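#lab-general

N.A. 3:47 PM
ok so I finally got the sequence cleaned up, no stray characters, all 323 residues accounted for. can someone with queue access submit it? mine expired

B.Y. 3:52 PM
send it over

N.A. 3:53 PM
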Amino acid sequence: MFQDVAQLSGNVLQGTTITIDDGNGVGNLVVAQDVSVGDDLTVADTLTVEGLSTFNGDAIFNSITTLAQSSELHLLGPIYDANDDLGNNEQVLVSDGLGNVTWQNFQGSGLEFQSAWNADTNTPDLQNYPLIPGNTGKYWVVSVAGSTPLTTSGGGTITDWQPGDWAIISEDDAGNVFWDKIDNSSVDGAGTQNHIAMWTSAKTLGNAAPVSMIQDPDLAIQTLTFTGGNKVVFDTAIELQQEVFDSLGNAGTTNDILVSGSGSQLSYVNLADITVGGAEVVEADVKNVSGGALVKGDPVYISGSVSTSGVLEVELADASRLK
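B.Y. 4:20 PM
back already:
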């Protein structure tokens, strides 16, 4: 054993450096029990530890380090990753394709509620809250509506905040950290049974006051009632695909038409039962019952007579009855 500046004093080897070398660059140190290193330990080749090793300073392994199956590794201090970065709050070590491990963000549930947020006064102050990976998943619930701008993905801002919305810190695959919004604002309002709902404001529902719908015992029938006005206006076409009932609840039959009465109610009347006063002009579409198409200028044959009441009775006739 060749000594540099270390000197043996009783059971203590005093000095700074011990070199074990047989003169040819070969030397071994065998320790039967524990080895305690107070500061740095550098091993150029193989180090085999069978007992307890305590490192009070830094331990740097520049080559392969293998822990036997029965070995235990206790990490009692701060840990740095392959990028020499120290882990932050709620991060885990994640390996890449080369086997290197780096600190990555992780939350047990993915979300962490912080507090209520007044989006009108920006209380607490979210505009200056750090947008860092360690804060990903933290969110605040809007308690008061407001337009406080928070920076979102791509450099834009979110300004529409309603009670119940979440202001949440998000992170994309590229590592960009930004504000995001989960729209949880609810629709408010109250309605009345059997009344159709109507938007009374941007986020409020109420009754469409003059309109109600009643479910008849016969499930195939719905009664739609308009009240509070003297007319209903349709500004678009109406397509009637099912039976149409008159004011008396009757469905029309062949050649029936709806005729208004004195109370402006409509009832079905058959064409054969219609009489026209002599001083009246009647305009109506004419159907050619013979099957040929009518064009403008074709003659139409009509036969009729004046009844005892002086009213002209009109009915369709064919050419054989022409006089």
